[in-house]
Amino acid sequence: MTHLTPGPIAGRTPRAETPHPPRPTTRLAPAPPEADHDWMRRSVCANSDDPNAWFPAGNTGFWLQHIEDVKAACRTCPVIAECARLLKHLEAHGEVAGIWASTSEADRMSAKRQKQRAQAKARYSEKRRVAA
Ligand code: SF4
Question: Mutation test of ligand 1: which of 40, 80, 108 has the most ligand atoms closer than 8 Å to its C-beta?
């Protein structure tokens, strides 16, 4: 009896084991706590002629005024509170693109940096207090 050694099948070499399963290219945040998203239908952006305006292509020059105009439109939105809640939920799972609840990406990034600086300062103060 011929003993066959395991090897390539029909000219194909076995694929190397991947250490991790392939990751999806886009990350989706888990569904927010409240299941009812009917409020979105009442939003200014969803009822706008140009919903893409909430996703500006830049944040300098022409776009600065555009962003301010869109943020002003958000301030008239009847569901800004719901929008802000959803934004907070999504931000906990990663970066969020576009203008939400009258905040631009730059505004949110700046607020995040300020918070991180304040936390770092508090940690440093605590370390100095403990070391003293
Ligand atoms: S507050 Fe939110 S829901 Fe309302 S217009 Fe702005 S981005 Fe849209």
Answer: 80
